[in-house]
Amino acid sequence: MSHRGGGSGRSDSRSDGTYGDGPVTALRRIAFLLERAREDTYKVKAYRGAAAAILPLGDEAVAAAVEDGTLTTIPGVGASTAKVIAAAVRGEVPERLARLEAEAGPLAEGGRDLRAALRGDLHSHSDWSDGGSPIEEMAFSAIELGHEYLVLTDHSPRLTVARGLSVERLARQLEVVDAVNEHLSGSGAGSGFTLLKGIEVDILDDGGLDQTDEMLARLDVRVASVHSKLAMDKDAMTRRMVAATEDPRMNVLGHCTGRLVTGGRGTRKGSEFDARAVFEACAGNDVAVEINSRPERRDPPTKLIELARDIGCLFSIDSDAHAPGQLDFLAYGCERAEAAGIDPDRIVNTWPKERLLRWANG
After folding, report:
1. pLDDT score at 16
2. Rounded to whole angstroms, how far apart are CA atoms 244 and 224?
3. How far is the first Cα of the chain from the last one, in angstroms, to the nearest whole number?
4. Would you give the DSSP letter of residue 209?
5. Nearest C-alpha neighbor of 301 from the set 275, 319, 281
6. SS3 at position 290
7. CATH 1.10.150: which residues of the chain?
8. 312's torsion region: left (phi>0), alpha (psi -120 to 50) or beta?
9. By C-alpha distance, which of 220, 215, 224 is closest to 172?
């Protein structure tokens, strides 16, 4: 499997204006492009819902519904999605898809060589916590982007607003991950791809991690982030973050300042802490500093990326995707890492899976 950037469910529109893939692919591609453009979730759900509705029906039944004009009687198919389905069945490029493809373009101008070097993504969310899509949809989109691995990192129990996973729910999720990998391997769809078991675990006030040691030990990769009391006193926040890096199960320090610079949630000032002390602790404890690729985060700020670089930290460039189309956000982080002159070998998700897992569980 190649490891390079690309689009999920990319449409196969030909020079003669015909469309070479089926309606499910067209619907998924529209949803992917809407997510990539950070459109409202309700706009996306219609397309993913329609794809799920027609998938089990089979090509002949869908074509028959187009022919007799009964598409909208299928639960989950509305007027807009019916137009997409009908066009794709006729072999045409759906108008909505053509428009989105024309508007898409590259997300970032820089960092393309680094993006091509990334083998996977260590930070992603599904609808088990606050993501918008099922686990298997996240995995399929990662495969279509050329990933060799994707770490599923739904939230930990204390983050109730994000439906954080209790021990029991996380244990069930691990069984689902095994089943997804088995299905992908058996079908041949995921040849060379592995969905890895992970968590975005809250860093508690005292620096502890918000999950049992037993469950953390069952995971492949662990991202640890501060989500509460972001305005904590600087010295206390420093102690909190340093203590977290000393836990041998922690692998990645997620979005270290917690800032928001744009977007629908408004802006938020980053936490204050002794960045040198925290990054020295990361370097000393073999913890990677995340370059969070979400456009509304741009976390860490550029000066902190440069400080972590100079101290000798490892890095992880992550999408923090909450929807399949957001997996493409890696382009933003790669542009920032390249601008900071970070050696690709210091970015842990350029590593093959075996090396990554040895580092994360050594």
Report:
1. 45
2. 8
3. 26
4. B
5. 275
6. strand
7. 23-104
8. left
9. 215
The mean of the pLDDT values for the chain is: 93
Q: Which CATH architecture does the domain made up of 23-104 adopt?
A: Orthogonal Bundle (1.10)
Domain with CATH 3.20.20.140 in the chain: 112-360
pLDDT of residue 8 exceeding 60, the answer is no
* Residue 7: pLDDT band with limits 50, 70, 90: very low
Angstrom distance (rounded) from CA 330 to CA 337: 11
Residue holding tokens 């938020």?
Answer: 268
Phi, psi of 253 (to 5 degrees): -90, 110
Give the sign of the dihedral formed by CA 331, CA 181, CA 289, CA 310.
negative
Mean pLDDT of 182-205: 91
Cα radius of gyration rounded to whole Å, the chain? 21
**CA diameter of the chain:** 69
Whether residue 250 contacts residue 227, with contact meaning beta carbons closer than 8 Å, is answered with: no
Q: Give 310-359 pLDDT, tens digit per residue.
A: 999 999 999 999 999 999 999 999 999 999 999 999 999 999 999 999 99
Residue with structure tokens 């802490």?
273
pTM of the predicted model as reported, rounded to 2 decimal places: 0.92
The CATH class of 112-360 is alpha beta
CA-to-CA distance for 351 and 314, rounded, in angstroms?
Answer: 12
